[in-house]
Design brief:
The protein is mostly helical. Helices cover 61% and strands 0% of the residues. The chain has five helices and no strands.
Length: 107
């Protein structure tokens, strides 16, 4: 992720074709560890490609990946009902506990 972020920062800064040295300088400027092999691998994969098109194709690919939605959508209804009841009971219990005095003791 550091390499991708550095590449995109260089692009946003006007460097249309960042080199490995450019990315190393950006990553090193924040004190992060620089992995030259990863930088070279990344640059070999994006060489000659438009970053905007790469991002757009990545968004399309991610759209087809199922995301982890609400757990209650997968859980059996009995478990969902039990968890709702527990939440209500827990909220009621909170009001029984004494609150500390924010403004000092009442005299």
């Amino acid at each position: 992720m550091k390499v991708i972020a550095a590449y995109m920062l260089a692009q946003l800064g006007g460097n249309t074709n960042p080199s490995a040295d450019d990315l190393e300088k950006i990553i090193g400027s924040i004190g992060a560890e620089v992995d030259g092999d990863r930088i070279e691998l990344f640059l070999s994969q994006v060489n000659g490609k438009n970053i905007t098109e790469l991002v757009a194709s990545g968004k399309e690919k991610l759209a087809s990946v199922p995301s982890g939605g609400d757990a209650s959508a997968v859980a059996p209804p009995a478990i969902v009902e039990e968890s709702k009841e527990e939440k209500v009971e827990e909220e009621e219990d909170d009001f029984d506990e004494p609150l500390f005095d924010l403004f000092g003791p009442d005299n």
